[in-house]
Write a structure and sequence with these properties.
The chain has 223 residues and is of the alpha/beta class. It has one domain: Rossmann fold, CATH 3.40.50. Helix content is 40%, strand content 21%. The protein is built from nine helices and seven strands. It has a seven-stranded mixed beta sheet, with helices on both faces. The protein binds S-adenosylmethionine. S-adenosylmethionine binds next to α1.
């Protein structure tokens, strides 16, 4: 586990560690390292499964929270009336903004663990992929990010995404090594993340929740 939060107050150092790794140099290898190799051989959930989740979940009025390199929007996006990319890390916003320029995205730098001060009308879909396992805290503390996104969801809007679980799973040698390394460095904070806590937390917040597990990855859709 990474650093803890004190009585629900996000720890600035732990929040920084969870995204500081995404430098311009690191982002050049991100798609291959994470979605090419780790997804298939460590997390055992091929990127194609996540592309499928996006193809089904995306709407024309979409907010992507924790955009990274923008791979899934690039692969699954067909067109948007409005696309907003939010991330705490400016390098991610720069890269994804350029990659997705054909969709004319708006960019917002924001920490999902703090209330979002966006002057934006509600969205009909929100993507949150591979962000929860990075965020520090317990599952209920991480899901505060969802509470911050909810005011930007229109009635009936869909939240979808995925997260790598660290509890109640059987990692292979590659996954065990990566989980230990990333949690030690504070890039991941998922040692206590189990599918039950994720399911319960989403059910407390949404009327309809669908969760599937593929390898170590929980894929969710909630409305
Ligand atoms: C593992 S990457 C996932 C990127 C992308 N969604 C994907 O699946 O490839 C985690 C992303 O969440 C962002 N992130 C981490 N902590 C955050 C926070 N507190 N608020 C907003 N974004 C955050 C990182 O900068 C990064 O873009």
């Amino acid at each position: 586990m990474g650093e803890k939060m004190d009585a629900g107050v996000p720890d600035a150092a732990a929040i920084a560690k969870a995204h500081a790794v995404y430098t311009p140099a690191a982002l050049r290898f991100y798609d291959l390292a994470v979605h090419g190799l780790s997804n298939r051989f460590a997390w055992r959930c091929p990127a194609s499964r996540l592309v499928e989740l996006y193809a089904q979940g995306l709407s024309a009025n979409h907010l992507e929270a924790g955009v990274g390199t923008g791979l899934f929007l690039d692969r699954a996006g067909t067109g948007f009336d409005r696309l907003v990319l939010a991330d705490i890390n400016v390098h991610c916003l720069d890269l994804a903004g350029r990659r997705l320029a054909r969709f004319r995205p708006a960019l917002r730098q924001a920490n999902l663990l703090a209330p979002l001060e966006f002057d934006l009308a509600p969205f009909t879909s929100v993507g949150l992929t591979y962000v929860l396992h990075c965020l520090p805290g317990t599952m209920s503390e991480k899901l505060v990010a969802v509470d911050h996104l909810k005011p930007f969801m229109a009635e009936g809007a869909r939240l979808f995404g995925a997260t790598i679980l660290g509890r109640g799973v059987v990692p292979n040698i590659a996954a065990r090594g990566l989980l230990d390394l990333y949690n030690k460095k504070g890039v991941f904070n998922n040692g206590a993340d189990g599918i039950e806590a994720l399911t319960d937390g989403l059910r407390q917040r949404f009327a309809t929740v669908r969760i599937e597990q593929d390898g170590l990855v929980a894929l969710f859709t909630a409305r």
